[in-house]
Amino acid sequence: MNVIAARGSLDAMVAGISAALLGNAGDPSAAVAEVLGLHAADPLLLRGRDCPCRAEGYIRHLLHEDAAQGWAVAALVWRPGQMSPIHAHKAWCAVGVHRGLLTETFYAPGDDPEYPVQVAAVLRRPGDTSHGPARADAIHRLANLGTETAVSIHAYGLPYSRFCTDLNRVFAA
Ligand SMILES: [Fe+2]
Q: How many angstroms is it from 89 CA to the middle of ligand 1?
């Protein structure tokens, strides 16, 4: 019964993202983040799905892909101390925290283009969201600085097959 409920919750989130994309052809990231905010902290969202962590670093698990429309949703699992590189996105992105705590640090372009300058850091709790356009100067890093494993839900304007190659512009740490 719980698995059925979980499918319903994930399906509702995917349907909400699809609807948000239809109405926001330019940068849909804010509208998608609003949808993620409604569903991300649902404890049943990932019930019945195996989303293990990885000792070597954070890991993505595909939840849904619409290859024809060019977007996908993944769960990212972060053990304590794991973090993304400092990066900007080449596609729109939206994120909502499912469980645990994530720290999002923002950066501005520096004098040396390879070394952005930290300008702010925000603690993201379950249900909190963030979003950004495909822009080289929208630079951030997500990190699990807490003591429990964290899970976040990410939607990106790219097919999943291109996540590793075409999603991020990575900066020096
Ligand atoms: Fe990102």
A: 6
